[in-house]
């Protein structure tokens, strides 16, 4: 039996991927993040997400414990959360492109 790792969380977008597809996804996700970020108004631009140090993707044959795995995913999740921007009206957090959509329906209360 191989390592039964259920999923890996992308540290950029916070979505779940298989341990094989994350390696393909991460560089693509970072590229997309960079072009999305460059398209934002300067005050909404974010710092480039940093790959969490806890990240320990198993290479083939390498064993990783469940707790190490969970710590890795938790670090990635936190990093992805830090990418979210709060709505100035209601305080809920969104990805910048989602926030633009949300702002059309969320108006300041008077
Ligand atoms: Zn991603
Ligand atoms: Zn709102």
Automatic annotation (TrEMBL):
PROSITE patterns: ZF_C2HC_C3H. One of its GO terms (molecular function) is zinc ion binding. Gene3D superfamilies: Classic Zinc Finger. This is C2HC/C3H-type domain-containing protein. Keywords: Metal-binding, Repeat, Zinc, Zinc-finger. Coiled coil: none annotated. It comes from Trichoplax adhaerens. Residues 35-72 are annotated as: Disordered. The keyword rRNA processing does not apply. Residues 6-35, 83-110 form the C2HC/C3H-type domain.
């Amino acid at each position: 039996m191989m390592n039964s790792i259920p999923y890996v969380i992308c540290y950029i977008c916070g979505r779940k991927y298989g341990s094989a597809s994350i390696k393909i996804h991460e560089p693509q996700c970072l590229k997309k993040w960079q072009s999305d970020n460059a398209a934002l108004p300067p005050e909404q631009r974010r710092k480039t997400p940093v790959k969490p140090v806890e990240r320990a993707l198993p290479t083939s044959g390498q064993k990783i414990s469940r707790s190490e795995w969970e710590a890795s995913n938790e670090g990635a999740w936190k990093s992805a959360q830090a990418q979210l921007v709060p709505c100035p009206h209601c305080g809920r957090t969104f990805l910048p492109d989602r926030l633009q959509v949300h702002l059309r329906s969320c108006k300041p209360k008077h």
